[in-house]
Amino acid sequence: MERKDWHIDDDNARACLDRLRESSMICIPTHQNIDADGFGTALALYHALRQFKVNCFVLVSDGKLPDSLRFLPGSSQAVIYGQDELPEYDLLCMVDCSDRRRLGDFYSDDPSRVDNITTPIINIDHHITNDHFGVINIVEPRAAATAEIMTVLLDHWGVEKSVTIAQCLLAGIYGDTLGLRTESTTSRTMRMAADLVDAGANPTSITDALFRLKPASTVCLWRHALGNVEWTGALIWTTISRSMLEECGSDPSEAEGIVNFLAGTHGSRAAAILHENEHGWRVSMRSMTSDVDVAAIAAEFGGGGHPRAAGCQVTDGEQGRNLFLTTVAERIARQQAV
Ligand SMILES: [Mn+2]
Q1: CB-based contacts of 220, cutoff 8 Å, min separation 6
Q2: CATH of domain 216-337
Q3: How far is the CA of 264 from the centre of ligand 1 (A)?
């Protein structure tokens, strides 16, 4: 069976809608470090449930809504945890959450909110590591984005795709596929995106918001980061220090694209960005070469991830950092020889 040939079981889709419709208030929490797929899918569901006259709210569970996602229709109605009053609810519907505990302060302030099984959870996700923690689970790892699953689910439910819903769903798909560019993007993803454009979604505004527009502080940070690029063997790497963030007035999330940018450098086998933190360095690694597995290298340092994208924490100051860099350079040279 081809990757694109996944489907949602009709009985499961109907059971999901029944459960949603019998609730008096649904909380749709977003995973921490919210992204376009997590937020766009949650907002699409919010708009769809309003068509069914079901009461619900989207919760930004770590209290941080990035400016870059405020273009999404309905974003101003989202409840910001720690800032807005948390309404009472009798059902949690998690979308794009691989782990039910990855919910920022909403979880850590009171773990019983998620661990206490008296509040049922519906689980709609596309992460391969999702362990089906819900009373209803609609989990499909072959989907490129949870927004792709939601698009199909709304078809099962007979929901009319308003311009608003189409915009939220296309933003989710674009977010996780980097604008239909990742390996996970199938012809079906592209057709679905085209249908959403026909329904009124605006790909230009999504591309601008997610990939082009940026604050001046981001350019300041990239200037510093690119100015400090170094090579250790075939590893290309740079650092983000706390003083750089302070000088530029940047949030650490503004450094996110740098490691992907470096990973495409000819002559490199892997790229790393080292973020200074209180314990040393939080490292994010990428490889565009199929014979270099950065997850295996990260695992040696207590981290993990995917073969092409992984991370770990490095301690023991300058010495620990240098040991890390030379170890990575050795590993990627050895993997090359195999
Ligand atoms: Mn996703």
Answers
A1: 247, 248, 249, 250
A2: 3.10.310.30
A3: 23
Distance 176 CA to ligand 1 centre (A): 6
Each residue of 38-61: pLDDT tens digit? 999 999 999 999 999 999 999 999
What CA–CA distances, in Å, run from 311 to 56, 148, 190, 279, 299?
35, 27, 30, 15, 8
Amino acid at residue number 249: G
- Output b/e per residue, 73-103; b: 16+ Cβ within 10 A: bbbeebbebeeeeeeebebbbbbbbbbbebb
Give me the residue spans of the domains in the chain. Answer: 10-211, 216-337
pLDDT digits (tens, 9 = 90+) for 81-138: 999 999 999 999 999 998 899 899 999 999 999 987 789 999 999 988 898 999 999 9
Distance (angstroms) between ligand 1 centre and the Cα of 219 equals 26
CATH code of the domain made up of 10-211: 3.90.1640.10
36 CA → ligand 1 middle, Å: 8
CA-to-CA distance for 73 and 71, rounded, in angstroms?
Answer: 6
Give residue 146 CA to ligand 1 midpoint distance, Å.
Answer: 5
Does residue 115 sit in helix, strand or coil? helix
What is the DSSP annotation of 297-323?
A: HHHHTT-EE-SSEEEEEE-SHHHHHHH
What is the secondary structure of 116-135 as a DSSP string?
-TTS-EEEEE--TT----SS
* HSE-CB for 318 with a 13 A CA cutoff: 0
Residues 8, 150: Cα–Cα separation, whole Å: 10
Residue with tokens 């350079």, as numbered in its chain: 329
End-to-end CA separation in angstroms for the chain:
31
CA of 76 to the centre of ligand 1 (A): 21
Q: pTM higher than 0.85 for the full model?
A: yes
Nearest to 47 by CA among 122, 157, 125: 157
Q: How far is the CA of 230 from the centre of ligand 1 (A)?
A: 32
